[in-house]
User: What shape does this take?
Amino acid sequence: MLVLSRQIGQKVMIGKEIELTIVDVRGEKVRLGIQAPSEVPVHRKEVFDAICAENQSAASIQPADVVGAMSPFPRPAESSPQDALFMQAAIEQARLGLSEGGLPIGSVLVRDGQIIGAGHNRRVQHEDPMAHAEIDCLSNAGRQSTYRDTVLYSTLMPCYLCSGAIVQFGIPRVVAGESTNFNGHGSADFLRSKSVELINLHDSQCIEMMRQFIEQHPDLWNEDIGK
Assistant: This one.
């Protein structure tokens, strides 16, 4: 292991394209600014380990393990090229919620490649315990004759409240930004048991935004998930 001594504002180069900047030092914590090419994934070590463990677990599944299994899907759910684009729209909603003094959780509803509804967690802003991001998104989308041709995006794995709405309206596909900070307390299994195609993008922006909020506002977060 190479150990370098650096001060705030000083940089470290990894190769020719990755630059680390010491942003702040607070006790035992160090904040790093990272500039890297877009094709280079950047994760916290524990997030990287969790992704690797999940991938390794998936890779270890043998054909005999799934033959005849009672699965609601004929094949594993896969993300589409548009998922990153619409997740970014959900992230912008989350940032809007944060700027209003609320929780940074955003959601968008999509049909035929078009956003038909967008919302964010407004529990604090509206003093409404039901105003989760997905519920706000569905409310803003207005009445729909059907949801069978829609996709719901959320920056965080939906809780049981929002999962219930997803199942109630028959939304067939849900894309979550992450489940590292909150895994839904079993809601993922619930959605899949109801034949909902569930994708987890493990998005680093979603993970870090939620992690920082939970660290800075633990009381608001515990209130949101009913702790």
User: Anything to note?
Assistant: Confidence is low (pLDDT under 50) at residues 64-75. The first helix runs from residue 45 to 59. The two ends are 41 Å apart (CA to CA).
